[in-house]
C-alpha cells in the first residue's frame, strides 16, 4: 500500500497518483464495522469498474485544531495502526490529509477541487453523516452537486446494531467502561494497543508474578482501570496473559497518579525489554482495588490468573 501525506495547499507529484481511484473518505478512527462497510463499498466499486482502491483520512483529529479545550486526544487506532489495518483490507493508496487551520477553512468547492478532482478520483464513497469544508458546510448531497458528473458519489447509510449507530463514540464509551466484549463486537475484532516493553519497579517478580510493563504508543486510548484477560504478541508469538491497568494502590501513594499497564504472561519467561508488542484486550475481570497486604494481593492475582486462563481457553 502506498501512503501519500497531503496538506493544504499541497503539491502532489503526479507520478505518485496511480488512479483513477474509487475513494472512501472519512476519519475512520477504529476502522470499526461501520467504517468497513464504507471501505467495502468503495472496494466493490473499484473491482467492478477496474479502479484503484484509495482511502482518505485525516491527521490529527479535527478537534485538536477546532476544539477550544487543550485536552489531549486519544485514538482507538493511532495512525500507524490505522494504516496497517487499511493495508490488510487491500487498499492500494491511503491519502493522509494534514488537518490544519487553513484546511479547516476550505470552502466545499475548494475541497472538492483540491482533494477530489486533482487526485484523479472517479468515485467517492462516504458515510451518510460525512461533512467537509468550513464549518462542515459540505455534505454528501453537496458532494453530488459539485461533482458535475465528473465523478460518481455513493452514500453508505448507518450501520447499526439494536437500532443504534455503530460509532467511534460508542466504542470510546465502552472502553471507558471497560466493556471489552462490546468493543470487540463493534470493531469486529479485539481492541489492540501497540506498545514497548519498558522497565518497571519489578515488584511483580518479587511476589512470584513477573510482569511486562507496557508503555503504550503515544495517543493510544487506554481502557478503564482494572484487571483484564489479554493476549500479547511478542517476538512473533501470541501469548495469553492477565493485565492490570491502573495506579497500583497497594504499593503507591494515592497522590502519585502514574498509570501503568502490566501484563503477566502465562508460561513465558523470556527477557523482552525493548520489544515492540501488541496487547489485545478480551474481558474485564474486576476493578482495581487496594489490598491490606502482600499475601491477599498474591491470592487475588492467582485467582485473576485462573479466571483469565479459563476465559481465554474458550477462545482457542
Short description:
With 316 residues, the chain is α/β, with parallel strands linked by helices. It contains 10 helices and 14 strands.
Topology (SSEs and partners):
Blueprint: E1 2-6, E2 21-25, H1 33-49, E3 52-59, H2 62-66, H3 79-88, E4 93-98, H4 101-104, H5 108-115, E5 121-127, H6 140-147, E6 152-156, E7 160-161, E8 164-165, H7 168-177, H8 180-187, E9 191-198, H9 203-206, E10 212-216, E11 226-234, E12 237-246, E13 260-265, E14 276-286, H10 294-313
Parallel strand pairs: 1-4, 2-3, 2-5, 3-4, 5-6
Antiparallel strand pairs: 7-8, 9-10, 9-14, 10-13, 11-12, 11-14, 12-13
Helix pairs in contact: 7-8
What can be said about the biggest beta sheet?
A: 6 strands, parallel
How many H/I helical runs? 10
Overall tally of domains: 2
CATH architecture of the largest domain: 3-Layer(aba) Sandwich
Shape: elongated
Radius of gyration: 22 Å
What's the name of the CATH homologous superfamily of the largest domain? Answer: HUPs
What does this structure look like?
This protein is of the alpha/beta class and 316 residues long. The protein has 2 domains: 2-164, Rossmann fold (3-Layer(aba) Sandwich); 191-313, Riboflavin kinase-like (Elongation Factor Tu (Ef-tu), domain 3, Beta Barrel). The protein has helices at 33-49, 62-66, 79-88, 101-104, 108-115, 140-147, 168-177, 180-187, 203-206, 294-313, and strands at residues 2-6, 21-25, 52-59, 93-98, 121-127, 152-156, 160-161, 164-165, 191-198, 212-216, 226-234, 237-246, 260-265, 276-286. The strands form 3 sheets. It has a 6-stranded parallel sheet with strand order 1-4-3-2-5-6, with helices on both faces. Strands 9-10-13-12-11-14 form a 6-stranded antiparallel barrel. It has a two-stranded antiparallel ribbon with strand order 7-8. Helix 6 (140-147) links the parallel strand 5 (121-127) and strand 6 (152-156). Helix 7 (168-177) runs antiparallel to helix 8. The longest helix is centred in the last third of the chain and has 20 residues, at 294-313. The two termini are 31 Å apart.
